[in-house]
Amino acid sequence: MKRLLHIGLLAVLVAVGVGAVAPASAQERNASRLVLEDTTYVDVSMGVAAAAGELHDVFEPLRQLGGTLDASSRRKLGDVSLYGHFGYGYGHAQGSTWRGWIDPYETPFMLADSVPGNLSLEQYAMEAGIGVPVGSGWSVGVNAAYDVTLMAKHKDLRNKNTAMAFRIAPGINWHGDVLGLGLDLGYERSTERVEYTQVSESKENMLFDIYGLWLYHASGFASAENRRMKERNRLFGDFQFDVDAGPVQVHNNFRALWERSVQTEVGYNNLQFGEVDAWTWSDDLSLSIGEAHLVEASAAFSTMQGLRPLQRQELDPDSRIRVWVTYGDPVFCYWRRYHAEQLQYTLGTTWKLIVGLENWGMEHSYTEYPHRFEQRISNMAASLSLEIPAGPFTLVPWAAYSHAYDSYTDDTPWQLSGPLREQWDNWDGDNILGAMDVRWSSASGRCYVNAHYIIGGVPGPDDDRLRHMASLTLGFVF
Fold first, then answer.
1. Structural domain that includes position 108
2. CA-wise closest residue to 147 among 188, 200, 101, 204
3. How many Å apart are CA 112 and CA 35, to the nearest integer?
4. Alpha-carbon span 29 to 33, nearest angstrom
5. How far apart are CA 362 and CA 342, in angstroms?
6. In angstroms, what is the C-alpha Rg of the chain?
7. CATH code of the domain covering residue 240
8. Where is 366: in which H helix or E strand?
9. What's this model's pTM, rounded to 2 decimal places?
């Protein structure tokens, strides 16, 4: 027991003190599979990234600049395998609107304002994993993660967001000479609090309560009423399947996730704003034949239901304060279905040719009885890239073309037609994308530099909407 306590403490210290060049999600959540690789390293990197241009989703800023510091470590202590990660990121954005939540895509129920302003985003990410063999081919492990995110807008109306997420996932794995099987089950809880304030007293700003497909209520800002808390609980599971038959290797991961999110007022009077129930299924497959052929395929499908409570204010006879009282179960009002499929083939060993095809679609609706509003979009993209070695450098030019082949949206005075149309124009049009990656690694492999640039645009001489994105990363491996 004392040895296990020391091992667990070391895993946490490695996670906090060392951290990763790749984000925490790059490490498998099934920590029992850490024992499959005899790996020891420390990887520390720092990077900067920027983006600017008119072609962006309505929630994204016009321009943004950010930096990151990441560190990760893998270590083997006898039979015990450890993983740790720490990441820090800070970003500054200009021209940001409608950004009431840190991730505005995860719920249809929004609190937002329409005034463009500067935005700052600060993120801390910590993760630790431990894997221990327990028998012939068997191993167990635990993965844990803790993230904190802070966001603030610096122009009236000013929203300040504070978010936390904690995840724990025990796992088990068995691996024979040819076949391997793994399973992990986990729980994640996250909270986010948003508060709106106003510095200037010379102008009344409008705050929008958005509840699906840009249907809304609008009211003048009142500091005592514009605070929300969002709580989300997730249950998930991953099943891994591996085949190692000499030159043929297969790796597959199937994932299922259920989540429930609830929004309430930060205060004492029980006001509720909506609930979300969602299911997500996804599968990732990798098939390699020898060193020259690699096929990667993935598919994801999710459904989401949004429900609004039936409430009215009543006077509490004891406190003599008016409180919100809920009647019956929440009423179903919002529905969304999303799917995405991706296929990629890589040919070659030194020089590599990569061909990709991606298809995704979304449809959602909102019901405000007796009216029903709908929107749907289907998009397909083809891509082609080369991986070209040039001494210590690797050059990766990449090009893609995406086409929306089926689309429909309602557009009525009941909706915020400006952001609705702006977002729809980005989804509904064809896009041409081009990119170039340049990677450099020292002869010892202890130092590396990655540079990335991508440009996206709408084809046609009459539309100058473009988006430029660039990043530079410097890393060291010990």
1. 2-477
2. 188
3. 47
4. 9
5. 15
6. 25
7. 2.40.170
8. strand 352-368
9. 0.90
